[in-house]
Amino acid sequence: MEKIKNIFIVCGEPSGDLMAGNLIEAIKKTDPQIKVSGVGGVHLAKTCDDLFYDIKELSVMGLFDALKKLPKFLKLKKLILDRISLDKPQAIIFVDFSGFNLRLAKSINNRIPAIYYVSPQVWASRKGRIKLIKKFISKMIVLFKFEEEFYKKHGIDAAYAGHPLVDLVKPLIEKQEFIDNFRLLPVNKTVALLPGSRKQEIKYILPAMLKAAQLIKDKITQVQFIIAKAPNLNTEIYQKECKKFALDLKIIDGLTSDCLDMADASIVCSGTATLEAAIIGKPFVVVYKTSLLNYILYRPQIKIPYIGMVNIVAGKKIVPEFIQFKASAKNISSSIIDLLLGPKQANLMKQNLQTLKANLGSSGASGRAARLILEFLKN
Fold first, then answer.
1. Along the chain (379 residues), what's the average pLDDT of each consecutive run of 10 residues?
2. Whole-prediction pTM value?
C-alpha cells in the first residue's frame, strides 16, 4: 500500500476521547507527516489536525436517551460520510462508542480499511454484533488478552495492545498539595465518589452515593467526602444533588486519579473508572443505576456474571458490585464502612487489585496500538 497520509478517527465519549488522543499522539510520533481529522473531544483536539465535530453532547445512557438524540446521530453520520467522500482518507479508526460506530462502519461498507480500537463488549452482551464486526471491520486492536482470543476464535483479525490507562492513571499533584488546596483534614477518613461522566449517570447514581455517604457519616464521624467531577459536565449538575444533603462535600474537577489516590475507600460508577480505581489500588465498590425501563431492556442481554470491568478482567468478584435494586444506600454504606474499619478486608482487596493491574499489560499500550495500526495499513 502507498504511504499513509490521511486517517480519519471517530470517538463519542470522554473515556474514548482520552484513549483516542493518546493513540493519535503515538501515531504522529511514529510518522509526523500523517494528517488526522475526525470526531472527538478535548484530548483528541490536542493531537489531531482537524477536529471537525465536538462530542460534548453525544454521550447517552440507555435506549431512550439514544432515541432522543437520534436526529443528532443521523446528522453526524451524514456529516462524516460526506467528509470521508471529500477527504478520501486511507483508513478510519473507530474508538469505542459501538452503537454509533458499528452503524457507521456498515454505511462505509469496506470502501476504506476500518480499524476498531477499544472493542465493543460483544463478549458480554449482544453477540450478534460479531457478524457486523467480521463483515465491516478490517482489524481489531484490543485492550485485554482475553478479547484477542475471543475475536480470533470467531475468525476476526485481532491484536492485543494492552491498556493505555496503565500509563495515564496517576496522581497529578502531591498529596499534601491536594489536602491543602481542597482544605481536607488529614486525620479524617476520606471517601471518594465517582458518579460517572454522563448527565444521566449523575441523575441516577449520585443521589444513591450521597445517601450512602450520609449513612457512613452517621457511623464514622471523622470522615470526609470528595466528588470526582467529570470535566465534560457542569458543576451545577453536581451541586443540585449535593444541596439536598447536610454533608461537607468537595467537588473536584479533572483530578480523578488524585481523588482515588487520596481516598481510603471509593464508590465508583461502573465503567472505565473501575479500571482507574484498580490501577490506583485503593479499596472501592462498584455502583450502577439506570431508569427502570432501560434496566428491563438491557439486563437480559448481559450474559456474564459481573458488570464491573475490574471483576470481568479478574474472572471473579474481587470488588463488591451494587447494581440497580441492590444499589441502595444501606448496601453501599455497609460495604464501605467494612472497608474503612476492617483492615483485613481492605488489604485483601488491595492484593487482588495489584494482581489485576499486572494483567492489564505493561506500559506503552498506546505506542503498541499505533504500531499495530500502521503496520496493518502498510501491508
1. 83 89 95 93 92 78 66 90 94 93 95 94 78 96 93 95 93 95 95 92 93 96 95 89 90 95 96 93 94 68 76 91 94 97 93 92 94 91
2. 0.86
Asked if residue 26 lies in contact with residue 369, where contact means CB atoms within 8 angstroms, the answer is: yes
143 shares its domain with 278: no
CA distance 142 to 123: 12
Contact 62, 69 (CB under 8 A): no
Strands 114-117 vs 265-269: parallel, antiparallel or unpaired: unpaired
Q: How many domains, in total, are found in the chain?
A: 2
Distance CA 200, CA 296 (A): 17
State whether 157 and 188 are in the same domain. no
Which residues in 8-42 are b (16+ Cβ under 10 Å) and which e?
Answer: bbbbbbbbbbbbbbbbbbbbbeeeeebebbbbbbb
279 and 159 co-located in one domain: no
| 232-267 as b/e: b if 16+ CB within 10 A | bbeeebbeebbeeeeeebbbbeebbbbbbbbbbbbb
Residue 101 is predicted with a pLDDT of 94
In a domain, 22, yes or no: yes
152 plus 200 within the same structural domain = no
- Alpha-carbon distance of 128 to 325, in angstroms, equals 28
Q: Which pLDDT tens digit goes with each residue over 338-374?
A: 999 988 999 999 999 999 998 888 999 999 999 999 9
Q: How many helices (H) and strands (E) does the chain have?
A: 18, 13
Could you tell me if 329 and 186 lie in one domain? yes
Note whether 348 and 219 are same-domain residues.
yes
DSSP one-letter code for 301: G
Q: Does the residue 170 lie in any domain?
A: no
The C-alpha atoms of residue 317 and residue 324 are separated, in whole angstroms, by: 17
Phi, psi of 256 (to 5 degrees): -60, -45
Range of the domain at 306: 175-358
